[in-house]
Specification:
single chain; Rossmann fold; 2 domains; nine-stranded mixed β-sheet; seven-stranded parallel β-sheet; 38% helix; globular; binds glutamine
Length: 538
Amino acid sequence: MARTKYIFISGGVMSSVGKGITAASIAKLLQSKGYRVCPIKCESYLNIDSGTIRPTEHGEVFVCDDGIETDQDIGTYERFLDQPLSRDNFVTMGQIYQAIIERERSFGYEGEDVEAVHLCDEIIGRFKTAARKSRADVVVVELGGTVGEYWNIFYYEAYRIMKLRNKDSVFHIHVGYLPTPPTVGEMKSKPTQLSVRLLNSLGIQPDFLVARAERPLDRKRKERLALFCNMDGDDIISNPDLDSVYDVAIKFDEQEFGERILKKLHLKPKSKDLNDWRKLAETVKTVVNEVPIAVVGKYFATGDYVLSDVYVSVIESLKHAGWHYGVKPKLVWVDSEKIEADGAAKYLEGMAGVVVPGGFGGRGIEGIIQAITFAREHKIPYFGLCYGMQLATIEIARNLADLKGANSTEIDAKTKHPVIHIMPDQEKKLLSRDYGATMRLGAWDCHVTKGTKAHEAYGKTDISERHRHRYEFNNAYRARLEKVGLTISGASPDGKLVEIVELKDHPWFVGVQFHPEFQSRPLRPHPLFREFIGACLK
Ligand code: GLN
């Protein structure tokens, strides 16, 4: 087998310029040329995973099959490559320090003094493990943050050491930003020149420079960048703002970026198949008809964070399903606390569907339940994801089964009717504040009942979906709720854990304990999202 190649992608000038999409598009290009790609995201923070970080701080917590709670970029990679990833693809500085300290405490260094370079060895070891386990031809490593930050220095140093040891297999792509200040009206290349200098000062000369900017890179600036960054003009790739993220790989392909990378890696394109991607990009650009979908939640009211980051997988899944029908969902964000103040009708009248995504805690919950009542009574398609399933169960218990005050013990520990309660093995974890990676996480099998909406969607009885929860449907209320029209259409293989609930006398009312949004792909919408949008269009 040929030696695995490594491509590192760093960012310069500032964050949020699309390094993640750039890296995912590069991985996509290489995959489309017939190579097995293994993407890795490196985070600078000291958390072990993303599970304990507020989504409003850092965006959605994405969950892989193996239960690792990751940054949203891992979701982007899964969607772009249509490839399930795992903890091998997600490295944080916290994991690196933890491994080193644990080894030191168990005398793993046999009396040696433990130095910072051991961090680099640990990082390199992880890249190699990921490569070996995925049998990758090319490992694409996205370095978090931007060059020059002291907290990510060990990743850059790991690259430098790998390059030194393996000149022909290790390469570096730098993504620099070229701003166009409104007062000047012209694109400036100096900040990117300086970020390449910063790289140089770390002993790194990039092999390619990706120029992120509002507009395409012109010849003059390309020449300046080439001269001052000590590069060949052909190795500078333009990456202007585009209509959709799917266009980035196509824009790169037009500049033969994939071929150029492969040439440096001493590889030849084995196939050239970006056709499906092209079709997808075309669909994304040409769909005009909109279907209004209300997303009701409680993280909408405060702060200056971006909702599109907090709910990225849900948003993408709704889009994937929409494109399947040639429509695009027009998402209307409804803050449940506003519903509590003004009633649901004001916000939900005229909506084709209602989605309640995952969440935690008690704030704004009554507003969400009012929204569910509205969707149920007005026969508006309803899709509840995790918390959205639990809250739908509470709504049905209170309003159809007449269980006054029914609740989840997460919201009201003393409720008379705990229709949702904590899973048996979760209680002691909460009591001992053992929060990290202790929820019911990752892929679990589920059995789907024939003759239900869920079965209609999946077309099969055995499925596997990703989870992230501590509470569950309380089986003591099963019969009582089934009597008023609730169908339990999916459960764990032993039948004990309720995974999917739906309502009989309703066009489409489905709640799932899992997170289907983590498995939807642009060209392969998730069956439940697909059926939900289908119902919204009727
Ligand atoms: N808070 C609920 C639980 O822990 C739902 C979690 C979620 O929506 N991801 O069970």
